[in-house]
Amino acid sequence: MKIEAFYYRMYPNMKAMASLLIVLLALFSAPVRALAPEPPSDEAVIVPAGGERLLTADDFRPHPATGSAYNEIWSYSLLLNDGMQATFSLSQAHLGSLMSPVSGAEFAISGFDGKSYRAPKEYDLEDLRYDARSGRLQIHPRIYVEGVLPQRHSLHFGAAKHGVEFEVALTLTDIAPGLTWGDGVFRLGGERIGMFVHVPYARVSGTVSIDGVTKRVSGTAYMDHTFQTNFAPKLVRNTYRYVHHGETMEVGYLIAPHDRFEDRVVGIGAVREGGRFRLQKPQAVAVVSTRQTLGAEVPRQLAVRFDGGGQLILNRERDQQAFSALEELGGLQKAVVRRFIGGEVMIFRGRGTTNRGARIAYDYLVVK
Questions:
Q1: Which pLDDT score is estimated for 329?
Q2: 230-243 residue pLDDT tens
């Protein structure tokens, strides 16, 4: 009997519940299966070869799934009026023998009439479709993004979750061109992680409807896109995403590798100077202080060191959402999933500051 069939028999809701993790775990993944036998050292962290370049439509498309547990995610951060903060993502995940490959989507928002909402959804892998001409990446007729970057782009999410109906329609304008280095692929030991900042900045406007309440919203947007060959939270300590859109602009997505790897962050940063964004190469990330939240030691202050000697201090001040990715699982189901992913994944989203006087939105994932 296949392992996935065994789990479905033992735990009838296993597939439905585990699917809630797909979008969240894709944000916190690092590979464990090699695409190729390079580099020879298991401890090496190697940044992409090649210089800074602008992204193309070919970078946005779903990449070929390689390995038994390939995963990929397109993740949007939305900083909206009245203190609202939202995330929207599309993903694909191959979970080896645990369950069949799936695609996923999630919309989450805090500060919507003083409440927070999350709507993770799972679909068949075949439902994830991409049309290069229109730039349409679709997972459901009501859940898709459309428009070739950076000329135009829109986000759409329509679904019901726990009896609550969601309808989101947002348009991005004034889109800054996306960036990466070389082929965008990092090496963590013998493994590969692709990272692309498709939208370092854009204006966003449209409507968000939840449970019969519709709001016109406006603000700014950021989007990055990653792909890996496997889930392995045990190979990394934490991940950190930060977004500052103001008079100065600075964004980044960082992965702190497991202690057995060299002390070098895997990540990408971008700062706007002279009217355009340029990339920064993070060299290291250090946790200066922590604050225990939901039983996890969560960084309160981070120090990021870049090539050239620059340093950025990130201060986590106020969580707007804090939860476990496993919160909807039962005890036995949680034990199975925790063993598979190497721990319990905790998510913290909120607002903070930097040592440069900037206000940021952050999205931290921590393994407990």
A1: 63
A2: 555 555 678 899 99
Burial class (CB in 10 A: 0-12, 13-18, 19+), 174: exposed
Phi-psi region of 184 (alpha: psi -120 to 50; beta: other; left: phi over 0): left
Residue 161, CA distances (Å) to 14, 108, 122, 164, 217 in order = 18, 11, 11, 5, 22
| pLDDT reading at 28 higher than 50 | no
**What is the C-alpha separation between 80 and 361, in angstroms, rounded?**
11
| CATH of 3-367 among 1.10.10.410, 2.60.40.10, 3.50.50.60, 2.40.370.10 | 2.40.370.10
**Beta-carbon neighbour count of residue 146 at 10 Å?**
15
pLDDT in tens, 163-178: 999 999 999 999 999 9
Domain ranges of the chain: 3-367
